[in-house]
Every structure is written in C-alpha cells, then in structure tokens.
Write a structure and sequence with these properties.
The chain is of the alpha/beta class. About 30% of the residues lie in helices and about 20% in strands. It binds iron/sulfur cluster. The site of iron/sulfur cluster has 10 residues, from helix 5.
Length: about 450
C-alpha cells in the first residue's frame, strides 16, 4: 500500500476502526487523500499501514490518461484481492460503471473531491467506534508528503477546454478557495514545520476569477482572491526560525499579470521558479489544442523576466505528436526551445484519452513518428539542461535537504536535497557528500556545486 505508511494514530481506542489508503495520481489527488484522512481521523478512525489490518481500504484513483486508468483499475483489483472491502474515489470515480463492471464487489464509488460522500461511505462500511476521547483534542492535519514540504491547493476544476484534456469533465468548472482560508492553511503549515509550499491547482493564474477576486480581511487588511495578492502574502510568512519559506508556483499560465510576480522573486519573497505548461509552441498546434494564454510574445517576456530575476527557473511540459502536428510545427517547437532556453522540460507523446475532443481531430501522427519526435525533443532539452546545470558548477546555492543517508564504511554521510530550481518529484536533485551527522530533512543549507549532469547537481556544504 502507498501513502498510509506515514500515518499513525496517537491514541489507541478499543475496537477503533482502521482505514487503509492507496493514493494514486497527481499532487492534487494527494491533497484530496490528505483531506479525506484528516476528516476520517477526526471521526475516530485509525489508519492502517497494510491491507491486513484495515477494516476498509480507500483507493484514490487517477483518470487522466488511459494508462493511469489501467493503473487505477489494477490498484482496485489488488485491494480487493488483499482485503476485499474497498471504496473507490478520485478522478476515475466519474466512471463508476467501468469500475463496477470489472469489480462488482466494490462497496462504493465516489468522484473527485466529494469528501462528504467518501466519508459517508466509510461510515457505512465500517461504522466508527466512538470512544469518549475522540474529537476532543484537535490534531494536526494528516500529511502524506514529508513534513518539510506541503502542497497548497488554491482551487479545483478548470474553465478551459483544452482538446486533449478531460479534467474539466472530471473535476468541474473552476472553484477557487477563499483567500483567507488558503492563507490560514499556509500559515498553519509553516508554523508546523513546512519549509516549502507548493501552490497547485489546475490553472493557478485563474485563481479567483470564478469568485470575482472577492476581498477578505487578512491580518487587518483586505486581500483579493488573486494570484498576485496571494503571492505577496505568502512572501510575508516566516518559519518559527524566522526564515522565509520557499513558495513555488505550479501550473501558471502566462497571463499578462504574471509579470508582476517576477519582482517578488527578485526580492527573495517568492521562490524564483515558474512551472508553465506551454505544451507546444507552434501557433497552429496551440490553436488546435485550444490552449489558454496562447500568445506570441512569450519569448520576449521570458527575456524580460530573466533581466529582472536572472536566477529564475522556468519549467514546462510539451506534447509531441498531437493530431495534425506537421514536421514544420515540430521544428518550430525545437527552434522555439533553442531560443527559450527553458531550465526544466518534461516531454510527453500525445495519448488519446477517452472523452477528449482531440480524439476526433484529423491527421493523427503515427506512433513511430511520435517516438522519433519525442527522442528529438529530449535530445534538445537535455542538452540545454546539461549546459544550464554545468554553468552552476562553482556557485553556492541554497539547498533544502530531503533525505540524509547512513554513514558508509569510511564514516562519510551523503544526503539528497533540491535547489530552488528543483520541485519535488518532477525536477532534479542535489547530491551532497560528507555532510554532518546533525543534518536533517528540511534543513536549508548553502551548497557549493562541484559537478553536474543533464539533470542533477553534486556538491558539498559550503
Ligand atoms: S487548462 Fe487545459 S489542460 Fe489544464 S486542466 Fe484546464 S482543460 Fe485541462
């Protein structure tokens, strides 16, 4: 089982019901799992780290791509084989008929972020044993990420209709959280030891559009539900040690106001990192993809951003082999990448997803051609990444520690961390040698870079 191994329950209650959790999919789904488990613990449930000890197993599924759906179905199958009492939730919950056809014995199927419905299903499957102490003592929220970094989800759903994506069908229209609630959560996380906040949503730049950027009071002044206000306030947070926590923005579309965030990065109040899912560069492919904020001046803006904040890291992802993509479109993308010099790039081959409008588009790209373009894309982006990382050799950079190893036969201890250019799970790492035994996960240390490859850095504490 994944995720639930980090959970424990501080108070043993006789006959306390135990819930197992298998959490699949993206960080947004992980946040959903955390919310569900926090709710269940408040209701008196304990968490089981294995199938055997669980009275019921929750499978939080991902339904983004057909391959993710297959993975979700096999996780459901495993949970049924190992435990038998299974509730399915998450993105694939929208396809209850597919799940029930394959696994008629599942106890309940609920959709993404239907917290109430999942909790109710658990209550029905394994009624909680209410001990006299349950609910009286407030407990911290359950986190499935290490204590030193946390995902901060600011909205659900999406108002766009990108041709390759079914997220709006799965998760609905944009629904932004109140800004004071988001800031309160962030403040609580930082007070509890979070050193790095990862701001996530489906479309971070659109935050607050659905609630007309409503104003709320926060610390005696009004703040709007808008990314610029949010970023400014997050930049005011301090850890209990008085440090500025790292604040990383993901899934930002380059709407014009994004320019206003760059000075905050230059001032050190926001981590100089922007994750912008460009997906392509050729205007005709972007049009066919129906991408938001698809505008011609992006290269110029990248240059301006770098002039204001030279250390800014731009991460992006690109899809090759979208229906109708010609050799000229693909070359346009490669030329654009040579000019844009993005720091981090993820590449994907187009994969049709049941229900996406892109599936009906003419001129699908043959699989061998997709593979060939993918290899060419990776060749270009790895070369750019290697050169960018090589340029960091000799520099001293802040690094957040994720993991400290055991001493080897010579007594040397190694550690793994990330620079401000590396988001957890998706970017590179910094490998450290000869660290002091007192170093711990979550420490932020200054590291002199000694070597680099195409993705990672190697160094020593300065
Ligand atoms: S912006 Fe496009 S790709 Fe992203 S969730 Fe919305 S529809 Fe999907």
């Amino acid at each position: 089982m994944t995720a639930s191994t980090t959970l424990d329950t501080p108070r043993a209650i006789p006959d306390q019901k135990k819930v197992g959790m298998v959490s699949l999919g993206c960080p947004k789904a992980l946040v959903d799992s955390e919310r569900i488990l926090t709710r269940l613990r408040a209701d008196g449930y304990a968490m089981s780290p294995d199938y055997e000890g669980a009275d019921v197993v929750l499978v939080n599924t991902c339904g983004f791509l057909d391959s993710a759906k297959e993975e979700s179905l096999s996780a459901i199958g495993e949970a049924i084989a190992e435990n038998g009492r299974v509730i399915v939730t998450g993105c694939m919950g929208e396809e209850a008929d597919v799940i029930r056809a394959r696994f008629p014995q599942v106890l309940a199927v609920t959709g993404a972020h239907q917290y109430e419905a999942v909790v109710e299903a658990v209550h029905e499957a394994a009624p909680p044993s209410q001990g006299p102490f349950v609910d009286l003592i407030p407990q911290p929220d359950i986190k499935l990420t290490p204590r030193h970094y946390s995902y901060l989800k600011i909205s659900e759903g999406c108002n766009h209709s990108c041709a390759f994506c079914i997220i709006p069908q799965l998760r609905g229209k944009l629904a932004s959280r109140r800004i004071d609630a988001v800031l309160r959560e962030a403040e609580k996380l930082v007070a509890a030891g979070t050193k790095e906040l990862l701001v996530i949503s489906q479309d971070t730049s659109a935050y607050g559009v659905d609630i007309r950027h409503e104003e709320r009071m926060w610390k005696d002044h009004p703040v709007r539900a808008h990314l610029t206000d949010l970023a400014r306030e997050l930049g005011q947070l301090r850890t209990p040690q008085g440090e500025v926590p790292w604040v990383r923005l993901h899934y930002v579309y380059p709407y014009p106001y994004v320019d206003q965030l760059i000075p905050l990065m230059a001032e050190g109040l926001l981590t100089p990192y922007l994750d912008i899912p460009f997906q392509h560069a050729s205007p005709s492919v972007l049009r066919a993809m129906k991408r938001p904020a698809n505008e011609a001046k992006v290269l110029e803006r990248l240059k301006n951003w770098r002039a204001i904040c030279p250390d800014i890291t731009i991460r992006s992802s690109f899809v090759v082999g979208f229906p109708g993509e010609t050799e000229d479109d693909f070359r346009y993308l490669l030329d654009w990448l040579e000019e844009a010099q993005l720091d981090r790039v993820g590449g994907f081959r187009f994969e049709p997803v049941a229900g996406a409008t892109a599936n009906e588009l003419p001129n699908p790209v043959p699989e061998e051609l997709k593979e060939e373009r993918y290899a060419r894309l990776m060749e270009v982006t790895e070369r750019i990444s290697a050169a960018k990382l090589e340029a960091k050799i000799g520099r001293t950079l802040p690094v957040i520690i994720d993991d400290v190893g055991e001493p080897d036969e010579d007594g040397d201890i190694g550690a793994t961390g990330r620079s401000q250019a590396d988001a957890p799970e998706i970017d590179g790492q910094v490998f450290l040698r000869n660290v002091p035994a007192t170093l711990a996960a979550g420490d932020i240390v200054q590291v002199t870079v000694e070597d680099a490859d195409a993705h990672d850095l190697f160094g020593v504490i300065a």
